[in-house]
Design a protein that fits this description.
- This protein is α+β, with helices and mostly antiparallel strands.
- It has 16 helices and 20 strands.
- The strands form four sheets. Strands 1, 2, 9, 10, 11, 12, 13, 14, 15, 16, 17 and 18 form a twelve-stranded mixed beta sheet that branches. A four-stranded antiparallel beta sheet has the order 5-6-8-7, covered by helices on one side. A two-stranded antiparallel ribbon has the order 3-4.
- A hairpin with a 3-residue loop joins strand 9 and strand 10.
- Helix 10 packs antiparallel against helix 12, helix 14 runs antiparallel to helix 15 and helix 15 runs antiparallel to helix 16.
- The two termini are 16 Å apart.
- 50% of the residues are buried.
Length: 510
């Protein structure tokens, strides 16, 4: 059995990309995904750990929801396997000034309703997306959208914006029918887009079903029928894959890696992701609002033990407050595992460790395993904590609203600036900034980097910011993900980029 490895590509700067803007590179492939091959099998069953909280493109920021959104929705751009933004529903684009971008809209694209996409739909969709706080980091940089002619829209940003192409990549700014927006369509119950698959049914707590879109502008996918099974328990996903009950497992149980890799009927795809796993501490809670206490907690946790127990060593212990493989990270001032130093931090804080009590919220078995190590480590410095389990939807609503003390989670993005904006800017409180950090100095660094178009200058700003974030220690970094997917070896066309995007429209059965 073969094991595939994909390394993270360095990010392309804004104006390096601008050199190819007029080339009109074909995005979401317009060729048939089967590559001319035919097979009697035309269905697939995919096992995933968590159920999406929503089928809308804009009322969640959950990874589980992202998998569903990639099936039914598309944006002006998409993320390729080298992590570059490429044209999708936009046929081409160009920067006409530091704040203005023109996008030529692809002709002949149909919505799942059968109606053709127009520039009016594009403008209405981008305007509509501005109304949803959970995707604010992807929409707030857009000042206005204007229709230039029947095939061109102009997007104006509030100022020079280093991440506008990233903002338009993916489904947060998905293009949907203006007619449905105006009619108040419930996109959770009726997720209509231009994507390669059409939503059919959702059996809550069990499964979701999709069918290939016959009129998909890129060519009808080779796999016609798709079922996503919700299987929370890791070993159950493995057993289902081995038995042929499912064809593809998204979240592979790391404890089962040996048996999976030894099975000649299965393929394993392993890659270094950009996702950082961490314990977020609510910085508004008394005790946890003291940075010295947070440093004590961070120093007391043995990250190598966490990685061993939680993911069977399929991860890299983390020190910095940001992902290690994104440009601009820094370990300067980051805590090391040192129990004595943790006790010193507590003594200096003036906070009695017996008064520090919190519950660590977890939404899956992997997080619970990590929490058990953390619980034992913190007990050594006199801090008691409980472990609390929640389903993903409850976990997301509880932590987003700030009704918690600590939670285990992860954040996955394509660029350092996008990461810090989502995780640490005060405007992201109520979104991905679940630590609820509200630090004017952090905000100022991020705002400055956002308008700095020169890549080297922006990197220097981000490195200073990273050093300061390590000093603030708003959360406890745990490990950098090494992601694994497992699937039936007869499934071909599987490619996954560093943020976990897999385009099933390109897959086929041998």
């Amino acid at each position: 059995m073969k094991k595939r490895n994909k390394r993270m590509m360095s990010m392309v700067t804004l104006f390096a990309v601008a050199a190819t803007l007029l080339a009109g590179v074909a995005g979401c492939s317009q060729e048939g995904s089967s590559g001319g091959k035919t097979s009697t099998k035309d269905s697939i069953v995919i096992a995933t750990m968590s159920e999406t909280p929503s089928l809308t493109p804009n009322e969640h920021n959950a990874v589980a929801g992202g998998y569903m959104n990639l099936l039914t929705y598309e944006g002006l751009l998409y993320r390729d396997m080298d992590m570059k933004s490429q044209p999708c529903l936009a046929e081409s684009y160009e920067a006409v000034s530091e704040t203005e971008w023109d996008f030529k809209i692809r002709k002949g694209v149909k919505f799942h309703t059968g109606e053709e996409m127009t520039v009016e739909d594009v403008k209405a969709s981008l305007d509509w997306a501005q109304n949803f706080p959970l995707i604010k980091t992807s929409t707030e940089n857009i000042k206005q959208v204007d229709i230039i002619d029947d095939e061109t829209v102009r997007i104006t940003t509030h100022g020079p914006c280093a991440v506008i192409l990233d903002n338009l990549t993916g489904t947060a700014n998905a293009i949907v029918p203006k007619k449905l927006i105006d009619a108040g369509n419930n996109f959770n119950e009726n997720p209509i887009g231009t994507g390669p698959y059409v939503f059919k049914t959702w059996n809550l707590g069990d499964s979701l079903e999709f069918e290939a879109f016959e009129d998909y502008w890129g060519g009808e996918p080779a796999i016609k029928h798709m079922t996503w099974k919700i299987i929370p328990e890791g070993s159950s996903r493995t057993i289902a894959l081995e038995a042929g009950e499912v064809d593809f497992v998204v979240e592979v149980e790391t404890m089962d890696m040996d048996r999976i890799t030894s099975n000649e009927d299965l393929e394993v795809y392993q890659y270094e992701g950009t996702e950082l796993q961490f314990m977020q501490l609510n910085n508004e809670v008394p005790g946890l609002d003291n940075s010295l206490v947070r440093h004590a907690i961070n120093s007391a946790i043995n990250k190598e033990d966490v990685v061993t127990v939680a993911v069977n060593n399929l991860g890299t212990p983390a020190k910095s407050q940001t992902p290690i493989n994104l440009v601009g990270t820094s370990d300067e001032g980051a805590d090391e595992y040192n129990v004595e130093k943790a006790r010193e931090y507590l003594a200096e804080s003036g906070v009695n460790p017996s008064d520090i009590y919190f519950s660590i919220i977890c939404s899956n078995d992997m997080k619970k395993r990590a929490a058990e190590v953390i619980q034992a480590n913190l007990k050594e410095i006199g801090i008691t904590c409980d472990i609390e389990s929640m389903d993903l939807a409850t976990y997301l609503s509880t932590t987003t609203e700030g009704n918690f003390t600590a939670c285990l989670g992860g954040y996955n993005t394509t660029d350092q600036l996008l990461f810090v904006q989502g995780m640490y800017h005060s405007e992201s409180i109520g979104g991905s900034n679940r630590s609820r950090l509200n630090d004017p100095k952090v905000d100022a660094y991020i705002d400055q980097a956002m308008v700095t178009l020169d890549a080297e200058e922006r990197q220097a700003i981000l490195e200073e910011l990273n050093a300061y974030l390590n000093e603030v220690c708003t959360l406890v970094p745990l490990w950098q993900t090494v992601a694994v997917r497992a699937y039936n070896a007869d499934l071909k066309g599987v490619e996954i980029n560093a943020v976990g995007n897999l385009y099933f429209k390109d897959c086929y059965w041998e």
